[in-house]
Amino acid sequence: MLKSEKVNSEFSALFVKYMKGTCSFEEAQHVIGVLENPHNDEQILDEISGQWDKWQAVENNEELKFAHKVTMDRILDRLHHKIRLQEDEDLRDNSKRKTIVSVFIKFAAILIIPLFIYSAYLTATVFKAKSEKSSQTIWQTIKTPAGIQTDFVLPDGSHVWLNSGSVFKYPVSFAEDKRQVELNGEAYFDVAKDASHPFLVKAGKMNIEVKGTRFDVISYPDEVLTELILVSGSVRLFSGKYEDNKTITNIKPGECAALNAAKNKLIISKVDIAKYTAWKEGLLIFRDDPMNEVVRKLNRWFNVEIILQSPELKEYVYTATYKDETLPQILELLKISAPVKYNITERKRLGDNSYSKRKIIITKRR
């Protein structure tokens, strides 16, 4: 813990170099070690906060500021993720859950600044590399852990919502002729209109072109289908390179394009848009969905492992809408409305001292 004014002054000077991305590797390691220390006193935290405010006021690189905004969103998401994990740690003990959550909230304010600035160093390093290798495309990656969602605005003004367990990549600077991004997982796009710079999304084996529209893409690596649901505007699906201009089909609002890459099969159908896009509003909507689909969504939403132990339950159809319900509440509602019962097993400590996902066994009620 740093206490003396002299040490704080030395750290302050080093911290300025760190924020500018000009310190050596050894200096960076030292700064990161200080920032990651959960026992820093109030004086050093005030120093960090003050220097951050000064840097933010004089920094003219808007792209760098934007990257910091994305980084802050990701840190907040991680904190919320920790809170959610602790909430689920004891599904049957509400008083314990409230105590754990209050502790995390208390420490969140202390953790935000050092974690944010540590990530900012990594971002600054990326931009420094960009200036040194201007001919090379530098990609920014945004990841959402299982159980949380986030949203952000791209440099071109396009708004993106990223669902649980997803990875989104975009170039720090879009190319002169197009705006290209990559997705593994699920995202909802509200693309800024720019007819001269088409917006391209690579999602698994699906290649998408839009110019200004709203749509949802589902492309998790562990799922058979890659799906695109068009809310408004128009979308073109193409194969190969964009420059080859090989159109597969055009999608209309209210349609879903489902691609089974393994079978090289594309199916276009009319769908209930709200069912696919409600997740970004915190809603889980099921409309005559088979139970295995319900379980798949709950697993991703709450970062748990629900197992249907009775095979006949997999095809049981279920209809419900959930908003802000906790997993215990949903399980109880499921037990009331469907012929099921459930059992929650204890989490196991793994070799790295982390814990396995909460496992919930669902069986048919006799």
Describe this protein's structure.
The protein has helices at residues 5-20, 25-35, 42-58, 62-89, 94-132, 273-277, 291-302, 327-337, and strands at residues 139-143, 150-153, 159-162, 167-171, 179-190, 199-203, 206-210, 214-219, 225-232, 235-239, 246-251, 255-260, 265-270, 283-290, 304-308, 317-323, 340-344, 358-364. It has 366 residues and is of the alpha+beta class. It folds into 3 domains: 5-132, no CATH class; 139-275, Jelly Rolls (Sandwich), CATH 2.60.120.1440; 282-364, Phage tail protein beta-alpha-beta fold (3-Layer(bab) Sandwich). Strands 1, 2, 3, 4, 5, 6, 7, 8, 9, 10, 11, 12 and 13 form a 13-stranded mixed beta sheet that branches. Strands 15-18-17 form a 3-stranded mixed beta sheet, with helices on one face. A two-stranded antiparallel ribbon has the order 14-16.
Would you state the CATH class of the largest domain? Mainly Beta
Counting H and I runs of at least 4 residues, what is the number of helices? Answer: 8
Percent strand equals 25-35%
- Tell the overall outline: flat
Helix share, percent: 25-40%
Q: In the residues, how many domains can be counted?
A: 3
Structural class: alpha+beta
Write the CATH fold name of the largest domain.
Jelly Rolls
Radius of gyration: 23 Å
